[in-house]
Every structure is written in structure tokens, then in C-alpha cells.
């Protein structure tokens, strides 16, 4: 699992995170909305009797909403014992990105999404934006998600 990254797309950008965080990839299931949650939290899904909150990564990264389509999927990840579904435009592949091909991301601007990015990975002629899944939720948001019934 060392150096393996799951690559996915949002808009025309390629992102990736370490495969070790991935539990499962799902076709977009039915999402039950929960009133009063942040806009990027789309609701919850029921996977084999387990209630899992889902986040639209586009909205978390301050991108505009895009209607879901046949390639839209949910990446089930586990963050410090908390299961979370990540809605992405499409999954690309799993790539090996050796440590020597990873460069820490320069601090560019103060956009919200820059806090999620920790590095870039060079793969051939392309660059993947490496995200830190642990930073997708603030401590406060994590507490709120843990309070959702079923968690």
C-alpha cells in the first residue's frame, strides 16, 4: 500500500489521496438529507445497515455544484475511526507515486481549499494534487457528524 494513491477528478483537476484510507467505491446511492447541516454535507447513506455521512467534495473545495451523473461516485473512507462518504465527479485509477516524485505544495493564497492540499505528485507528464483527508473536516464538524444518529 506504500506509495499507492487513489486518483479522482473534480472539474478538470486530478486529485489523489493515500489508498490506505479507502474502504470502498460505490455508485451514487440514495442520499437522505439532514436539515441544518453544512451545505457540503449532503446527508447520509445506508450501507449494509450502517449510516454514513456523505460530503460533496466539490462543495467542500468551494467549487460550484454540478448535477450528479453516471460517473459520479462515493468514496468510502475512514478518518480516525469515523466513516465518511466523499462524492466525487469520477474515479480515475490507483497510481504509485514514489516519495521522490512528491513535492510539498507551496502556500498559494488563502483559499479554503488550499488547507486540504499538502503536496503535488508527479506522474509522467501530469501532476496530481494530493489532499490530506484529515483536514476535510474541522474538529467542530467532526463532533457534529458523530452526533448524527447512527454514528
Automatic annotation (TrEMBL):
<feature type="domain" description="CheW-like">
    <location>
        <begin position="2"/>
        <end position="142"/>
    </location>
</feature>
<dbReference type="InterPro" id="IPR036061">
    <property type="entry name" value="CheW-like_dom_sf"/>
</dbReference>
<dbReference type="Pfam" id="PF01584">
    <property type="entry name" value="CheW"/>
</dbReference>
<dbReference type="InterPro" id="IPR002545">
    <property type="entry name" value="CheW-lke_dom"/>
</dbReference>
<dbReference type="InterPro" id="IPR039315">
    <property type="entry name" value="CheW"/>
</dbReference>
<protein>
    <submittedName>
        <fullName>Purine-binding chemotaxis protein CheW</fullName>
    </submittedName>
</protein>
Amino acid at each position: 500500500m506504500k506509495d499507492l494513491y487513489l486518483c479522482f477528478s473534480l472539474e478538470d483537476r486530478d486529485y489523489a489521496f493515500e489508498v490506505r484510507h479507502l474502504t470502498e467505491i460505490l455508485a451514487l446511492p440514495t442520499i437522505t438529507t439532514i436539515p441544518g447541516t453544512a451545505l457540503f454535507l449532503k446527508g447520509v447513506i445506508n450501507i449494509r445497515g450502517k449510516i454514513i455521512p456523505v460530503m460533496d467534495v466539490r462543495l467542500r473545495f468551494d467549487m460550484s455544484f454540478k448535477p450528479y451523473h453516471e460517473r459520479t461516485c462515493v468514496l468510502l473512507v475512514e478518518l480516525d475511526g469515523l466513516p465518511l462518504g466523499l462524492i466525487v465527479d469520477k474515479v480515475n485509477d490507483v497510481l504509485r507515486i514514489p516519495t521522490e516524485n512528491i513535492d510539498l505544495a507551496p502556500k498559494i493564497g488563502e483559499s479554503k481549499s488550499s488547507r486540504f492540499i499538502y503536496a503535488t505528485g508527479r506522474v509522467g507528464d501530469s501532476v496530481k494534487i494530493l489532499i490530506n483527508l484529515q483536514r476535510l473536516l474541522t474538529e467542530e464538524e467532526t463532533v457534529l457528524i458523530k452526533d448524527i444518529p447512527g454514528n
